Amino acid sequence: MTAVNRLGNFEAALNQTVTVEHTVTEKDTAMRWGNDLPVLSTPVLLWLSELAAMRAVEPYVVPGWMTVGIAHDSSHLAPSVEGNTISINATLVDVDGSRLRFDVSAEDGETVILAGSHTRGVINSERFRQRLILR
After folding, report:
1. Who has greater pLDDT, 31 or 9?
2. DSSP string computed for 11-33
3. What start-end ranges are recorded for coiled-coil regions in this protein (predicted)?
């Protein structure tokens, strides 16, 4: 049994894209992060790209395991204002043992607002929780 089969059948998800739709609210804006601009904040945009990546592989994760974000290399390219609905995309492009690499992007209408990559690690849920208790 390979590590990938033990952790989940992620090859089945390769090159599949999941899109998450999100309407920007006041809680999502940079104003909530100490900036005085009423635009979508970068931390929220990055989180939404992680959410899309999680959903892309969720059906393939075996019970007792989960994915966690371990790296981002993304650029926030354009602003998005409160009330706009954005589309966040994640495509699984590489499986390397327990590491899953995604191409991520987001659009506000015709405008690309995020482009980059996100890496997630597949971990044992219970073992991770036990390590948290020991901290």
Report:
1. 31
2. GGGTT-EEEEEEE--GGGBGGGG
3. none
Has this prediction a pTM greater than 0.85? Answer: yes
Domains of the chain: 3-134 (3.10.129.10)
Catalytic residues: 42, 50, 76
In a 13 Å sphere around the CA of 26, the CA atoms on its Cβ side amount to: 0
Residue showing tokens 């994760």: 61
DSSP characters over 32-82: GGT----BB-HHHHHHHHHHHHHHHHGGGBPTTEEEEEEEEEEEE-S--BT
